[in-house]
UniProtKB/TrEMBL annotation, chains A, B:
Residues 135-200 form the HTH luxR-type domain. This is LuxR C-terminal-related transcriptional regulator. PANTHER family: TRANSCRIPTIONAL REGULATORY PROTEIN DESR, TWO-COMPONENT RESPONSE REGULATOR. Pfam families: GerE. Residues 3-120 form the Response regulatory domain. Keywords: DNA-binding, Phosphoprotein. The modification 4-aspartylphosphate is found at residue 52.
Length: 202, 202
């Protein structure tokens, strides 16, 4: 039997993904939200954790949030993410958290089942439709500083607040904002935030 | 038998919701993405359409998009939406599209099944946990003009572009932006966009 843990913050989608995987007789499926993820991981010791990259809370978890960090998860358990090529930033976060499996959210249920089997054996599984997303992720033009300025601006912080928060001058924050806007081909700051958020970078 | 059609733009989640509902023996379940929704509605004549309010494409459909418009759908078929109290704007769009069923996305699978039965009988079903969202929706402070200015700004349009698009002067657009920002209690334009997008208004 392969022990599968579905982690998702939305109750109904968690139940639905569980129902889908329970139709596989060789899978022993459990599910949890993010708050109790760590406990479930410790008590169940799943072979594979299935995570939706677009689900609220996933990015925080992958970057080392409540569940002890995605990298911690990825080191001990086969991490499998449901992803989309349109969000290269999210793909990169999953990669940095050592995910083994990358399944396109538009794939068939059969592909997800095959991917789970692969990851349970410690092998990598990457949907070829996600390849373009990985390519985009490798060409990410923004620096970490530009990204953190954009992320704070996206939360509604003013230039002065961002400057205080990152120990920079107002002028430097404006420069980062301008270079980020130019690099992603945006028309203005709001457009730069829209583009980077859409791609899963901030 | 109750004929249920699951409409969702994300393949795997569509399959998962279908698997969940197929465990009910009295349901005859089909699924479709948005592109082929109209054909499926016409050929299957479902009793109930299940729609995820947060799924890309849903808002467009509810406001009269490709599938002939949500109101058209709601008039002929029992429309049931999977919703969240945190997005009152999306709830209002569903209400205007004459949805009969409103199920909290964090509800149990059993509640969704009960809601589908109700809606199939032509009755209304509203999860009580969504009540606060409906209250928020009824207190929406922004005018249609302020919302359309914000929506265009969120797409990255400049003040001048918005002014041209809506046949207004630049000063009037600035005034709408300022009043919208003040009314939603935002710190600046970007914050106003963040707040209204998060609530499902734009």
């Amino acid at each position: 039997m392969t022990k599968v843990l579905v982690l998702h913050s939305v109750g109904l989608l968690r139940s639905a993904l569980t129902a889908l995987l329970r139709s596989e007789e060789s899978f022993d499926v459990a599910a949890s939200g993010w708050c109790t993820a760590q406990q479930h991981v410790e008590s169940l010791r799943p072979d594979v954790c299935v995570v939706d990259l677009d689900c609220p809370g996933t990015a925080t978890m992958l970057e080392g949030g409540p569940a002890g960090g995605g990298a911690a998860l990825g080191r001990h358990i086969g991490l499998l993410v449901l992803a989309s090529a349109a969000r290269p930033g999210a793909l990169r976060k999953a990669f940095e958290a050592r995910a083994l499996g990358y399944v396109d959210k538009d794939a068939s249920a059969g592909r997800l089942v095959r991917a789970i089997r692969k990851v349970a054996e410690g092998e990598r599984f990457v949907d070829e439709s996600l390849a373009f997303g990985f390519l985009e992720a490798s060409r990410m033009p923004l620096t970490a500083r530009e990204l953190s300025v954009l992320a704070r601006a996206a939360e509604g912080e003013s230039i002065a607040e961002i400057a205080r928060g990152l120990h920079l001058s107002n002028g430097t924050v404006r420069n980062y904002m301008a270079s980020a806007t130019r690099k992603v081909g945006a028309r203005n700051r709001i457009d730069a935030i829209r583009i980077t958020q859409g791609a899963g970078w901030v």
